[in-house]
UniProtKB/TrEMBL annotation:
The UniProt record lists the keyword ATP-binding: no
The organism's place on the tree of life at top rank: Bacteria
GO molecular function, one term: transferase activity
Organism: Wenzhouxiangella sediminis
Keywords: Transferase
Pfam entry (one): Gly_transf_sug
InterPro entries: GlycoTrfase_DXD_sugar-bd_CS, Nucleotide-diphossugar_trans
Listed name of the protein: Glycosyl transferase
Amino acid sequence: MSIPRVFHFVFGLREQREPFHLLHYLCLASCLAVNRPEAVVFHYRHEPFGPWWDRIRPRLELRKIDVIPEGFDPGRYDDSQEGRMIRRLGIDYAHESDFLRMDILLSEGGIYADMDTLFVRAYPDEWLAGRFVIGEEYAPLQPGEPLRPSLCNAVMMARAGDPFARAWRERMAAAFDGRWDSHSCREAGRLWQSHSDWLRVLPSAYFYRYGSTPEGLATLLEDSDGDRPDLYSIHLWAHLWWDAARRDMSDVHAGMIDEGWILKGKSTLARLARPFLEEGA
């Protein structure tokens, strides 16, 4: 049984106070244009609003989230400095999404992608042949520790009931300690080491060419990279630069990115996103 070409997105886990952003529209518009999916299922707790949402909404299958996923314990943020920072920055919703996306794939199967994704080339049918599919990310450097494999859960493909997805989900609650990726990317990396035959791991360049470093973000948001024939989608790492108050990773923030920025910009992101804005105009 193959993986269905149905894309799942999770959004709006907290109340929406700003209009649906252009980049979120472009995520969904590029998915529809490039991948020609059977369906795009938009899972939400609080429905977005605004002109970009009004434009894309009729093309989506909306699915209301009315549960808190089992194993997601916000009390764990008190256990570490990193956890307390995550809660202070208000990005703990990303962890709830980590649990929800696994439950969705286990229940329905399909392709999950984060909302800060831009699709560039169609995901090949051969990726959907059977086994769980995920991309490797550049292993984070931890002072004094050896490099450990890490699998990024921003793009995942699975059949309903997939054994790798099930084993990972069963370990997530115990692994969740309030830190950024103990239960997600790192736990998946550990499981990969013991069950490598359960999944297909794709090269980081396919989804994560522009890494979560100041240099990677500069290439994505400010500079212009050449055409990459092995680039299927890009992850924007939006939590690192979205807020105008955070400038340690990039001088670009979400408030700067509008139609003019996309249509006239020379950055890698502007160039790759432009066709989907022009197409939907």
